[in-house]
Amino acid sequence: MHLNPHDVLIVIDVQNDFCASGALAVPDGDAIIPLIHELAPLFAHVILTQDWHSPQHLSFASAHPGKRPFENIEVSYGEQTLWPEHCVQRTLGAEFHPDLHLPQAELILRKGFNPQIDSYSAFYENDRTTATGLGGYLRERGLKRVFLVGLAYDYCVGYSALDARGQGFEAIAVRDACRSIGLGDSVAQMEAEFAAAGVKVIDSRELLNGR
């Protein structure tokens, strides 16, 4: 696969709390960092996203007495999975993993900072109406094809890919440069949504062999 100047690599949430020993560690999450470092120089444009929660965020189980992490509750915008406290603003857990080194990144987009709305996608908060502004940014920059890597494939990467398609961008998930949380059949469900929406899933070799 050949890249062009209208392509952008979006690196989703490679933060301490999603990596080994983190508060919401994604299995084998750290292992994708060397591959991301291989892929990033192939792109003219790189964007990073950062989960950036307020203390006592609505999505934290600790904000709901009697509830435990990974239970689901109903909130104003629908069903919400409850998580362990993670990626709280200005904490070590919210920082990018120290091994991640992408100084060429043109934008760091922080999401999930509204205390009453969770935000998996880099494009919309979970109410599905509050935009982050990323779609407009990409259009203003003339970027048309979005490649996604990072954590986690079945949540923040996946929802970002689906919303990219919804906003008219071509969306490609680089499967081996992601890792999944794997709650129930979350991976299979996400890939079914990918197929329905036209999100393409590739292996990194398709990019690395095309350089």
From TrEMBL:
UniProt-recorded Gene Ontology molecular function terms: metal ion binding; nicotinamidase activity
Q: What name does the UniProt record give this protein? A: Nicotinamidase
Pathway assignment: Cofactor biosynthesis; nicotinate biosynthesis; nicotinate from nicotinamide: step 1/1
Q: Which UniProt keywords apply?
A: Hydrolase, Metal-binding, Pyridine nucleotide biosynthesis
- The Isochorismatase-like domain extends over 8-205
Origin species: Occallatibacter riparius
Q: Does the keyword Hydrolase apply?
A: yes
- The domain of life for this entry's organism is Bacteria
One of the GO biological process terms:
pyridine nucleotide biosynthetic process
Query: Which top class of enzyme applies to this chain?
Result: hydrolase
Question: What SUPFAM superfamilies does the record tag this protein with?
Answer: Isochorismatase-like hydrolases
What would be the name of the gene that encodes this protein? Answer: pncA
Any idea of its EC number? 3.5.1.19
Instruction: List the CDD domains.
Output: nicotinamidase (cd01011)
Q: Which NCBIfam families match?
A: PRK11609.1 (NF008623)
One Pfam family this sequence matches: Isochorismatase
Spell out the family assignment given in the record's similarity comment. Answer: Belongs to the isochorismatase family.
